[in-house]
Amino acid sequence: MYKQRLFTPGPTPVPEEVLLELARPMFHHRTPEYRAMLEQVTSDLQYVLGTTQDVYTITGSGSAAMEAAVSNVVAPGETVIVVCGGKFGQRWSEIGKAFGAKVVDLDVPWGAAATADQIAEVLKANPLAVAVYITQCETSTATLADVEAIGKAVAETAALLVVDGISSIGAVPYKMDAWGVDITVTGSQKALMLPPGLAFIACSEKAWRKIDATEPRAYYVDLKAYRTALAKGFDNPYTPANVMVRAAVKALSMIRDEGLEAVWARCHWLAEALRAGAGALGLELLSQSPSDSVTALKVPDGIDGEQLPKVLVSDYGVRCAGGQAHLKGKIVRFTTMGYTDAWDILAAIGALEMALAKLGHKVEFGAGVAAAQKVLAAG
After folding, report:
1. What is the pLDDT of residue 228?
2. 187 in the same domain as 311
3. Biggest CA-to-CA distance, the chain
4. How many angstroms from the chain centroid is the CA of residue 187?
């Protein structure tokens, strides 16, 4: 029997202190006790997102916030630009089409990041576009976009910049206000060290002007309802996952105590160690612009890429994620965000060595672990 070690890029491991908050007795949400919790969570999320704008807490997965960022912003027939470089960029496109937008897809190879120049060119060709939708970390390919540079390009137009930061915020640098991001969405189950169940969204003043001028086509994710409820005294318009909010107070306090820049540095350190260990085993990165929150490794030739994750979990208790769509069986993905430490990375690399060897790959045992140790020892 193996202890299960979770390395999927969502959900990620949850600290014991946070789990204990989930185990405490149920309480009512229409109370001063809950409102104080929501006020604290809102303040802490402003810190994590780098914004002075209110951050709204929605009970739902990150996709609920993504839907809110379309249904409240885009009227039927309006043009939006979507960067599609993976499964979650495609989700922006699918949501846009579901709400009647004219979607212009900027397709980039999976593993490549769209550049600010590419986005500027598409905006020039589509001057009536009301928004540009991007993904900071494309979870399916572990690819990081340069949001700061893209923000400068979009700011020169009337379009809004909307960022999916679900698998990046709290793990890599993100500065909503300073970078000119108009709408940010993220979720609880990744770098924020919580179970799935909460989505978060923040909007700039520019975004609110567009939202106020647009007839919402949603009820549960009507952002005006969230704005009204928060303004009345830190409340939600509908029944919230109040126990999750209580847990979020603890998780976000842990991020504040460590310091956001220290968290970013730790995730980079762990990602560098994982990449070094994998490289020593002859595994290549999929991404040309790798993220520090999740790493995608190409499965070596001759190895069954669908079996590799299965062997890792069944024989060694290490659960990673495989590839999606046309990358199924071709990559494995490991998280380096949230409640993950150096010993987790060494366990993952050690298990990867043994699983590869079991499937027939030539492995020098200890080579990957040693390479990761060198990075970790260097700090």
Report:
1. 98
2. no
3. 63
4. 7
